[in-house]
Design a protein that fits this description.
The chain is an alpha/beta fold and 236 residues long. Helix content is 30%, strand content 31%.
């Protein structure tokens, strides 16, 4: 389901953002600061169309991107990429200085077992003093309030506006939810893409990060980091 969601969305993924190029630059700068402000060997293990990876590469990092979606990878400009599941990364041990898994990608894994496998793989491919950077939605708040939709975002382009919003349908467990991502295009045609997430709390995620062998897990709020979601960093 996840691969199909992103393969179908790939051609219009940039329209989620008001200005994709500005988002690339802004997110890259925020992650660059968290990486200490100097170039590193970075794996973006859920790179999509390259929003974070391209921003980091522009700041001098040596970036490789992986993603489940070949359709999304086909849109990543000027970076080495490979189709791969984050639960089975195709790299030797200790290949990277940092692993980035941003933009709420990890919660596509719906069980603690699968998420633990992915985090263990991220730990394996990191070298000594490696750095993990994860970002998710604020799921502590979402688990408390169970929202049913997101505010619309508007992408402005010469051909007109594209409006993107999400409808959320919570499972009976109160932890997982199905998403309908809706895009209304300038000609008023509409597409709907569906996928599922686990609204994992910070404590739950931090516990899995620790169990995978990481240390010093630290949360960074958007107002502190300049990134649009809460970020969890940890060290090998």
């Amino acid at each position: 389901m996840t691969r199909r969601f992103y393969d179908r969305l790939a051609a219009d993924y940039h329209r989620i953002y008001a200005d994709w190029q500005s988002s690339v630059r802004r997110q890259g700068e925020a992650l660059h600061r968290l990486l200490g402000g100097h170039p590193r060997r970075v794996l973006d293990c859920a790179c999509g169309i390259g929003t974070q990876a391209v921003g980091l590469a522009a700041l001098g990092h040596s970036v490789i991107g992986t993603d489940l979606s070949p359709g999304a990878l086909a849109r990543v400009p000027d970076l080495p990429v490979a189709a791969a599941d984050m639960r089975a990364l195709p790299f030797p041990d200790a290949t990277f200085d940092a692993v980035v898994c941003a933009d709420n990608s990890l919660p596509h894994l719906l069980t603690a077992e699968d998420m633990g496998r992915a985090l263990t793989e991220m730990h394996r491919v990191l070298g000594k003093a490696g750095r993990l950077i994860l970002s998710t939605r604020d799921y502590d708040e979402a688990r408390r309030t169970h929202p049913t939709a997101t505010p619309p975002s508007v992408h402005e382009a010469a051909e007109g506006r594209t409006i993107t919003f999400q409808l959320w349908h919570w499972h009976t467990d109160g932890e997982r939810y199905d998403v309908e991502l809706c895009q209304v295009f300038p000609d008023l045609t509409t597409t709907v893409h569906t996928t599922t997430y686990w609204a994992i709390t910070r404590a739950e995620l931090q516990s899995l990060v620790n169990a995978a062998g990481f240390s010093d897990p630290t949360w960074h709020e958007p107002e502190e980091s300049g990134f649009f979601q809460p970020i969890l960093t940890a060290k090998t």
